[in-house]
Design a protein that fits this description.
The chain has helices spanning 22-36, 53-66, 79-88, 124-133, 150-159, 185-189, 218-227, 254-268, 282-290, 302-312, 335-349, 353-359, 375-391, 431-451, and strands spanning 12-15, 42-47, 70-76, 93-97, 106-113, 116-117, 144-146, 169-173, 193-196, 231-235, 242-245, 251-252, 273-277, 294-298, 316-318, 324-326, 365-372, 395-397, 402-406, 409-415, 421-428. Helix content is 37%, strand content 23%. α13 packs across α14 (431-451). It is globular, with a radius of gyration of 22 Å.
Length: 453
């Protein structure tokens, strides 16, 4: 029996040996062959460093081959490298076997097919239905090919997109994850002096959690200070998110990195679109406009942002969570590319990252506050609140949850995609306004949860 719970907003994910098994993986491969269109088409497959990755990779490949797809295996790679390669080589899509930042006993699949991600609202429902029904058309078996060159081809391509003008010292922590296949080589090739820690691939993630945070970057902070490095960076397990430490050993917010990189791209490409999502700071939109760009608002999630970047022909985009997207690499988010771009900007500006962080405007903010609400009620609650705010004449954005904006700030109420929670984010121009907006929003949320049946 296949659990419907493995089909999530942006990927398929669960505990290996329970919700995710080799049999489930093969069935997903069968279904994907029907979804993509079967015979004559080619899908790439790659995996992160988890112990279950090779077995699941073989199983999903077997399902695709049986369904008539050709499969090209590029081995252990980062998720961005898999996406990049699928476009760069002109294939019909790619399957990445990964559970992103989840613990080591988890695994799953991120899927790029037909020039878009398979996600809820964009094909996941169809794929889920095919998997659960399990009725697949007979097909001429596809061909399997191993591609040992994907990593070197990516390094060559990316290195040509980076222009380091002075040698910087960087501390990098791949966290024993997929970025180990690129670090330190890609830093060396672009002319950076890198000290890499936890740089041996190990799917048990012995050093720390596979999700980068203030806690996991303690060693990076210490090394940055001892070595007088220009900055430090930590990556998640599959390499699509980067978290930064400045030369003073302080965590740097995603807002600082977003504004810094947006300014860099807009200087070279005046007037072009930059995509940001509904939880991004006011400072992000202000900076895009100030540097002559076209701010394009999008809902949260890489699926939607990549789609919007491609449609708008945007040069750059980002999320509060630390995902940054580049037309340089076909519109995808890429943590390693982000760290190289940060180095490029610093090398050209001749400034320290701490100087940029200290001079970047940041408003008082409550990043996320959670309210328990059942999966059955959470969407109804947010829909009810959106209607209430609209009827009250509030300036309201309903692109992703409900966002209410006034002259002093904004608040965003969203249902969690994965948990029985409603999430609140608040930002304002002053601390008093922040507390006022947060108190107002919290009262509305609690009342709606209580009264919604």
């Amino acid at each position: 029996m296949i659990s419907e719970g493995i089909f999530r907003a942006y990927d398929i994910r669960g505990v290996y040996g329970k919700e995710i098994t080799d049999e489930v993986a093969e069935r997903i491969g069968n279904a994907l062959a029907m979804y993509v269109g079967g015979e004559g088409k080619t899908m790439l497959v790659g995996r992160d460093v988890r112990g279950s990755g090779k077995s699941l990779c073989n199983a999903v490949s077997e399902g695709m081959l049986d369904g008539g797809l050709n499969v090209e295996d590029i081995g252990v790679v980062t998720t961005p490298l898999l996406y990049f390669s699928s476009v760069h080589y002109g294939k019909d899509g790619g399957v990445m076997v990964t559970a992103s930042h989840n613990p080591s006993d988890w695994n799953g699949f991120k899927i790029w097919a037909g020039n878009s991600f398979v996600s809820m609202g964009m094909g996941m429902e169809k794929l889920k239905n095919l998997v659960l029904k399990g009725r697949f058309k007979p097909a001429t078996r596809g061909r399997l090919k191993l591609n040992p060159n994907a990593i070197s081809d990516y390094i060559d391509y990316v290195s040509n997109k980076i222009d380091i003008q002075r040698r910087l010292k960087v501390v990098a922590d791949p966290g024993n994850g997929s970025c180990c296949v690129l670090i330190p080589e890609i830093f060396d090739k672009t002319g950076l002096n890198v000290t890499a820690i936890n740089a041996e691939p190990d799917g048990s993630f012995p050093a720390h959690s596979p999700e980068p945070s203030e806690e996991t970057l303690v060693d990076v902070k210490g090394l940055v200070l001892r070595q007088r490095a220009d900055f430090g960076v930590g990556y998640d397990a599959d390499g699509d998110r980067a978290v930064f430490v400045d030369d003073k050993g302080r965590m740097v917010s995603s807002t600082v990195i977003f504004i810094m990189l947006a300014e860099h791209y807009l200087r070279k490409n005046p007037g072009v679109a930059v995509v940001y999502e509904v939880s991004c700071s006011l400072a992000v939109e202000e900076a895009i406009r100030a540097h002559g760009g076209k701010p394009v608002l999008c809902q949260v999630g890489h699926t939607y942002i990549v789609d919007r970047i491609l449609k708008e022909k945007a040069v750059f985009g980002g999320e509060t969570s630390g995902h940054f997207y580049y037309m340089d690499v076909y519109g995808f988010d890429d943590a390693v590319f982000t760290s190289l771009k940060v180095a490029e900007v610093l090398s050209k500006k001749g400034l320290k990252l701490s100087d940029i962080a200290d001079s970047t405007p940041e408003y008082p903010r409550i990043p996320i506050k959670n309210y328990v609400c059942s999966d059955e009620k959470k969407f109804l609650v947010v829909k009810r609140l959106a209607k209430e705010f609209l009827e009250a004449g509030c300036e309201t954005v309903t692109l992703d949850g409900v966002k209410v904006v006034d002259d002093e700030g904004w608040f965003l109420i969203r249902p969690s995609n994965t948990q029985p929670l409603i999430r609140l984010t608040v930002e304002a121009k002053t601390q008093d306004a922040l507390q006022r907006l947060a108190g107002f929003a919290e009262n509305k949320i609690n009342k709606a949860i209580k009264e919604t049946k």
